[in-house]
Amino acid sequence: MTRFIFITGGVVSSLGKGLGSAVLGALLQARGYKVRLRKLDPYLNVDPGTMSPTQHGEVFVTDDGAETDLDLGHYERFTAVHTRKTDNVTTGRIYSDVLARERRGDYLGATIQVIPHVTDAIKAFVTNDLDDEDFVLCEIGGTVGDIESLPFLEAIRQLGNEMGREQTCFIHVTLLPFIKAAGELKTKPTQHSVKELQSVGIQPDMLLCRTEHELPKEQRDKIGLFCNVRPEAVILAEDVRNIYEVPLAYHAQGLDGQVCAHFGLESKTPDLTSWQEIAHNVSNPEGEVTIAIVGKYTSLQDSYKSLGEALTHGGIANRVKVNVKWLDSEIFEAEDKSSYLHHLQNVSAMLVPGGFGQRGSEGKIEAIRFAREHDVPYFGICFGMQMAVLETARSLAGLAGASSTEFGPCDEPVIGLMTEWVAGNEVKTRKDDDDKGGTMRLGAYPCTLTPGSLAETVYGQEHIEERHRHRYEVNIAYREKLEAAGLKMSGLSPDGVLPEIVEREDHPWFVAVQFHPELKSKPFSPHPLFVGFVAAAREKSRLV
Ligand code: GLN
Predict the structure, then answer these.
(1) Which one of 382, 468, 473, 503 is the catalytic residue?
(2) Mutate to test the pocket of ligand 1, among 297, 303, 383, 405 (most ligand atoms within 8 A of CB)
(3) Annotation marks residue 330 as catalytic
(4) 447 is a catalytic site residue
(5) What is the distance in angstroms between the CA of the first residue and the CA of the last residue of the chain?
(6) 516 annotated active-site
(7) 53 lines ligand 1 (CB under 6 A)
(8) Looking at 227, 251, 518, 527, which residue is catalytic?
(9) What class has domain 3-278?
């Protein structure tokens, strides 16, 4: 029997509901259960693909090419279960499907209403496309009380009613704020939030209370009493230093044990050895490195969530703490070239991540030139590969007019829009006036590596598959000129048409990739490119 756990949030946003869900998934897995994690997002965008990363954080791409919420990244990093298109849905997607069906006449003349048509579509989403999982953890985005989330809450209420308590569990994540003047943690916001949830017919079975301080037992009992929850099912989620310590902390507070108790499952002891090892390695590094990330969305670190995590994983593999220095690429555009040097002091490696648009691109090219000329280990991801290619084209291949058609028409379209590419056996064609949403090369594509290249050594295999999210490609017509200038194409699509990886042989570590390796890195299996890159940074930090 598949059991459904619904996770809602109250009091404030950013409580780490996504992380909490991922951690519960990991803990249930550690007890030997098969899990699946899903997210229901109340906003009206059809998917987060067209949302600014500075507003909504990173867009996480799945193997099957869906642009999803960044919480799915947490789910994968903690459970290694590959998320799919069917694991994230928004109000916008639900409504557009319902309206498309209405236009097709599928509702046979019925008046279309939120209940039952929209709620049925939500319920179908929650219960469809499963593979005999023991648990489906379904997180509801937003905060209880938001107008947008009402249809989702109504749908999960109905599911709770239909399936019964033995198949469903409602967990509400709240905050216990600490009031300095009173020197106390306050439970009132939690009580109000639970009331709000009860007013839509949902009685939480468990509470996960985020707090900065320990809570006396009487207070915990009080929360249970006022919120109609068993006191043992009031779980304290105290802040910890590092997210990879959270599984151990929540387990110690009884989270997974109480979930099993709720479902009347016998209590197995979870195997948490790998989480203990990870937590130990993260807390006891042998050294540290500082890596500069030169990008545009540096103001909101959530816009590079997976990247930061993948660097931490590379650090775990190399037993170093990775400090990230976020640099806005525009500082490299100053007239006086020496003015940016102080930003790079004590930096042992540089990374230019994915990005969109012309603003700041010249600064990225300048930063890459510095890394190339000064033997600073360089890792380019997506846009960071395209800019590395432009840097070599302009500085070393005599192509002064080299540019990307993303910035407008140019003399040397070294980066350009492919009008066609092949996905599976299907040729996909894009036109200029196509919708902006969903027009990119998205999801997993295969890539063949050149034997003996750095890329092949790092991966330890010749055939790989990585996730993409971009519109533009390096133009293969420039291969000869770029390679003559020292930039080798060491990874190509199997048909040899799309450059996927470039690298330099005359540099300690200079690798740039068209895909997003950060999306597949996990703390217990760090991505090889991040392992190699952090190792090169560690080497460099020894030298300076
Ligand atoms: N803007 C570039 C493109 O669309 C790079 C995208 C990215 O870095 N994700 O191809």
Answers:
(1) 382
(2) 383
(3) no
(4) no
(5) 58
(6) yes
(7) no
(8) 518
(9) alpha beta
Instruction: Give the residue, by CA position, lying nearest to ligand 1 atom 5.
Output: 383
What are the extents of the domains in the chain?
3-278, 285-543
CATH class of the domain whose range is 285-543: alpha beta
The token pair at 159 is 């599911």
Common-topology check for domains 3-278 and 285-543:
yes
Q: Which atom of ligand 1 is nearest to the CA of 356?
A: 1
Cβ–ligand 1 distance for 498 under 6 Å, the answer no
Q: Strands 168-175 and 3-9: what pairing? A: parallel
Element holding 542 (H helix, E strand):
helix 528-543
pTM for the whole structure: 0.91
The span from the CA of 294 to the CA of 172, in Å, is 38
Which of 402, 393, 404 minimizes the C-alpha distance to 357? Answer: 404
Query: Count of residues for the chain?
Result: 544
Question: Is any ligand 1 atom within 6 A of the Cβ of residue 382?
Answer: yes
Residue 515 CA, ligand 1 centroid: distance in Å: 9
Each residue's pLDDT, cut to its tens digit, for the chain (544 residues) gives 999 999 999 988 778 899 999 999 999 999 999 999 999 999 998 888 878 777 778 899 999 999 999 999 999 999 999 999 999 999 999 999 999 999 999 998 899 999 999 999 999 999 999 999 999 999 999 999 999 999 999 999 999 999 999 999 999 999 999 888 888 888 999 999 999 999 999 999 999 999 988 888 888 999 999 999 999 999 998 888 889 999 999 999 999 999 999 999 987 789 999 999 999 999 999 999 999 999 886 666 788 899 999 999 999 999 999 999 999 999 999 888 777 888 888 899 999 999 989 999 999 999 999 999 999 999 999 999 999 999 999 999 999 999 999 998 888 999 998 754 444 445 455 555 555 554 688 999 999 999 999 999 999 999 999 999 999 999 999 999 999 999 999 999 999 999 999 999 999 999 999 999 999 999 999 999 999 999 999 988 875 5
The finding on whether 471 has its CB within 6 A of some atom of ligand 1 is yes
Contact 52, 302 (CB under 8 A): no
- H-state helical runs in 267-304: 273-283
- CA-to-CA distance for 410 and 416, rounded, in angstroms? 10
C-alpha radius of gyration, the chain, whole number: 25
Select from 406, 407, 445, 467 the residue to mutate for testing ligand 1; criterion: most ligand atoms less than 8 Å from CB: 406
Phi, psi of 21 (to 5 degrees): -65, -45
d(CA 8, CA 17): 8
Please give the single-letter amino acid code of residue 259.
Answer: V
Six-digit token string for 406: 């993303």
User: Atom 1 in ligand 1: which residue has the minimum CA distance?
Assistant: 356
| Ligand 1 and 355: CB distance under 6 A | yes
Which residues are within 8 A (CB) of 335 and not within 5 positions of it... i.e. 6 or more apart? none
Pocket mutation for ligand 1, best pick of 50, 352, 382 (most atoms within 8 Å of C-beta): 382
Write out the H or E segment, with its range, that includes residue 487. strand 487-492
What's the CA gap between 361 and 343, in Å, rounded? 18
